[in-house]
Amino acid sequence: MIIEPRMRGFICLTAHPTGCAQNVKNQINYVKAQGKIDGAKRVLVIGASTGFGLASRITSAFGCGASTIGVFFEKPGTEGKTASPGWYNSAAFEQEAHAAGLYAKSINGDAFSEDIKAQTIATIKADLGQVDLVIYSLASPVRMHPTTGVLHRSALKPIGGTFTNKTVDFHTGNVTQVSIEPATQEDIDNTVVVMGGEDWSMWMDAMQKAGVLAEGAMTLAYSYIGPEVTKAVYRNGTIGRAKDHLEATAATITEQLQALGGKAYVSVNKALVTQASSAIPVIPLYISLLYKIMKREGIHEGCIEQMDRLYRARLYAGTPISLDAENRIRIDDWEMRDDVQAEVARLWEEATTESLVELGDLAGYKNDFLNLFGFGFEGVDYLADVNEVVSIPSIS
Ligand code: NAI
Ligand code: NA
Fold it and tell me: Where does substrate bind (predicted)?
């Protein structure tokens, strides 16, 4: 069928298989153009189908030449209904990896469950023996707790008081005030259960017990800090509490992995347009101003540039990994530069529906958003009749 974007609120209901494949190819070409990375050879990516996880998988495979296993939760297409973008991305990734002679298998299901952990461990045992690197890049609004069976729902709320600030509807460009009511203690607890470090630690624990972690294995999860203007709703809000927990979990896992000389790190990444970040109020306005400034300064990066730099300049630079005072890897260093943040703060005051057209990069935001679903890529014929049912080689 001919597939067009169908927007509803912060999501797009359709995805384009050829466009998603183009997105994956572009990312692969970017990494290949930077040259080889002397890094991990057997990599598990949890949350491998979109955003930072997909970019990590691509960098592992096409930078390090690694065998990869990707875990994700995506919907396949059916007659007349497109798949979720992560499904098409993963189908394209596997095809490209196999064509390049690289091992790649995927596991589709709930990563929070014991069953998916067991399936993944069995696949590692059977095919790779062990892994050297585990990337933990899940972003989910809900988590079914594997031992209690309780379904926890995360919240994106400030703590302690109502938060009022500007936001933009990136579809219309309308800048308005948004007020978000403070979280209850239950909201905070639930968000920590969903997006904190417990599940990461459960994965590492299960893998260590099964003997599928190599000597000196490394694991990485992703965090965010961000600017003053989003602090109340992000870093000092419910999600920030979860990130505090995630960051603290790195130290616990490192201790747990001592016997095999393993290490757990959190990398603080740059704000980017992904399905997860588009749903957080205030963030889209911040991102549209940030993009404008970073592009002007020649320091803008997308997911693939971020992950490529993470591997090349931090993880496998051949020097001890540089960490901040809280033991975190910082790849948000360009976003957080004083001059960049000062300019964001200045533009933030001036931003209105009328002025944002000039001040911000709404066009860039919208384009990145469309790209998430495989739309807006050069070289893709969007008028062509395409098959919406695409299989992932290792799954079907
Ligand atoms: P994303 O939404 O693009 O990717 C999420 C991934 O998790 C997908 O592969 C999805 O299939 C998978 N997933 C979700 N629920 C699952 C489940 N129950 N079982 C298995 N797989 C599941 O998200 P994004 O933005 O790449 O986020 C990844 C991490 O990076 C998160 O920890 C996020 O907080 C962090 N981060 C994001 C930033 C941003 O601006 N987008 C900035 C800095 C950090
Ligand atoms: Na991801």
Answer: 224
